[in-house]
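Worked example

This section walks through a single chain of length 221. The input is the sequence exactly as stored; nothing has been trimmed or padded.
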Amino acid sequence: MDKAGYGLIETIRVREERIPFLDRHLARLGCSLGELGLPKPSQDIPALVRPFAATGDAVLRVEVRDGRASVTVRELPSLAPPVVITASEPHQPYPHKTTERDCFTDAGKEAEVAEADDALLLTTEGWVAEGTVWTVFWWDGDALRTPALELGILRGIGRARVFEIVQRVVQGRYPAQELAGKSLFLTNAVRGIVPIASLDGATVPADPRTAELAQRFWPTM
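Given that input, the structure is written out below as tokens.
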């Protein structure tokens, strides 16, 4: 991999003048820098980020590239349940949140053409992987299921939070057919937990457990 110009991203939620998962974002960033052999930023990232808490509700994009960190701010995206399609663009392994996101960009363009809000990607073998910026979960009886990290999906902050608040989450390799008729939701550290409205034109059934998890997602302190 050519490391020149190659960078890492952390997309961080500011919520009610707090940054709920800042420590987790910093830990993941540090881990990825070490595993990828990228230079650490010269700036103090916590000191760079914390003043943005005063924005109230917003999204921060922290990018670390060539040993320098930058922060940009944007508005919170829609939290309405999205209309999702399954992308034809195959998922490429994405164990680190890097700036090399071509498969997700292409899948997002597919969704736009299909007049959908977002896209779910499958691996080249046909296993359910992840969305363009989120992890997918679904209810299966008493169990909550999600794709396994070994598929090369991102170690999402939202994903890890769900594992903390749900007693039983089953990870695995699942074909797309596994999702038919299931109650699906997405999660990331910006949106929290959001139910999916429809997948490939089929309405996704609601489950009251998703709303209950959404209430518990954000730390109170």
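What to look for: The chain has a mean pLDDT of 95.
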